Amino acid sequence: MRFRAKIVDLGCLNHFTRVSNTISKLAKTCTLRLSPDKLYFILSDKVANGGVSMWCELGQGNFFDEFQMEGVAADHNEIYLELTPENLSRALKTAQNAKTVKIKLTNKHCPCLTVAVELPSLSSSSRIVTHDIPVGVIPRKLWTDFREPTVPDFDVSIYLPVLKTMKSVVERMKNLSSHVIIEANLKGEMNLKIETDLVCITTHFKDLGNPPWASEDASQDRDSENMAEARIDIKKLLQFLAGQQVNPTKALCNIVHNRIVHFILLHEDVSLQYFIPALS
């Protein structure tokens, strides 16, 4: 089992750093799945038990100048590691102006992801800063626990408003309630609502648009003006909105009525899915 990768391009390094920063805001620990073509950051708290789930997928060719790996077996050429994303994020923060960054799987008293950052120097010799990030190797028999989450048939799919705007609205609401109702329809309308014994506040977003497949895949008997809604933990929603550094080209929200809210952020070379279960 081997893994080594190298980033030279500064733009790719900064992009990878932004992705790792986002992951560190969304999960205290997660699974890093390595395959020859892609990297995945996976958080698989059981949604049925009220936990959030995350699935972030990166095409390695868009980030790494060199990428070599040998999985646990020829017929299973993958590696699954458990890591604390904050440690990876911190290591990459030292690489702001690096000449190169090398990441490899090592064994130093315990399995580690070793991040070697080559920094520019005034002298002819380079300065290299090394970070050893402890990881746990996940045995193959447990890999099925980390498959891509299945998306239930949604009632509404809608494009999200500007994430910064949505974040500022939710930040104000969290001072008044511990949960928020998110509702949307097939006419491009979305509302964020909080309802307490003392106050009821709604923020309306209009003309957001629905993806072309929304009206085809959504329940056939649903009127386009009917709202699908889910009541979710406001802190979990704010954690998702506050952690975003991916700068998506498209941001979508799927709602399964009273069951789950499924967010998708799409960039040219990154996709991030985030699942928040509805509160009963």
Automatic annotation (TrEMBL):
<dbReference type="InterPro" id="IPR016580">
    <property type="entry name" value="HUS1"/>
</dbReference>
<dbReference type="GO" id="GO:0044778">
    <property type="term" value="P:meiotic DNA integrity checkpoint signaling"/>
</dbReference>
<dbReference type="GO" id="GO:0030896">
    <property type="term" value="C:checkpoint clamp complex"/>
</dbReference>
<dbReference type="InterPro" id="IPR007150">
    <property type="entry name" value="HUS1/Mec3"/>
</dbReference>
<dbReference type="GO" id="GO:0005730">
    <property type="term" value="C:nucleolus"/>
</dbReference>
<dbReference type="GO" id="GO:0000724">
    <property type="term" value="P:double-strand break repair via homologous recombination"/>
</dbReference>
<comment type="subunit">
    <text>Component of the toroidal 9-1-1 (RAD9-RAD1-HUS1) complex, composed of RAD9A, RAD1 and HUS1. The 9-1-1 complex associates with LIG1, POLB, FEN1, RAD17, HDAC1, RPA1 and RPA2. The 9-1-1 complex associates with the RAD17-RFC complex. HUS1 interacts with POLB, HDAC1, FEN1, PCNA and RAD9B. HUS1 does not interact with RAD17. Interacts with DNAJC7.</text>
</comment>
<protein>
    <recommendedName>
        <fullName>Checkpoint protein</fullName>
    </recommendedName>
</protein>
<dbReference type="GO" id="GO:0009314">
    <property type="term" value="P:response to radiation"/>
</dbReference>
<dbReference type="Pfam" id="PF04005">
    <property type="entry name" value="Hus1"/>
</dbReference>
<comment type="function">
    <text>Component of the 9-1-1 cell-cycle checkpoint response complex that plays a major role in DNA repair. The 9-1-1 complex is recruited to DNA lesion upon damage by the RAD17-replication factor C (RFC) clamp loader complex. Acts then as a sliding clamp platform on DNA for several proteins involved in long-patch base excision repair (LP-BER).</text>
</comment>
<comment type="similarity">
    <text>Belongs to the HUS1 family.</text>
</comment>
<dbReference type="GO" id="GO:0006289">
    <property type="term" value="P:nucleotide-excision repair"/>
</dbReference>
<dbReference type="InterPro" id="IPR046938">
    <property type="entry name" value="DNA_clamp_sf"/>
</dbReference>
<keyword id="KW-0227">DNA damage</keyword>
<dbReference type="GO" id="GO:0033314">
    <property type="term" value="P:mitotic DNA replication checkpoint signaling"/>
</dbReference>
<dbReference type="GO" id="GO:0005829">
    <property type="term" value="C:cytosol"/>
</dbReference>
<dbReference type="GO" id="GO:0000723">
    <property type="term" value="P:telomere maintenance"/>
</dbReference>
<dbReference type="GO" id="GO:0035861">
    <property type="term" value="C:site of double-strand break"/>
</dbReference>
<keyword id="KW-0963">Cytoplasm</keyword>
<dbReference type="GO" id="GO:0031573">
    <property type="term" value="P:mitotic intra-S DNA damage checkpoint signaling"/>
</dbReference>
<keyword id="KW-0539">Nucleus</keyword>
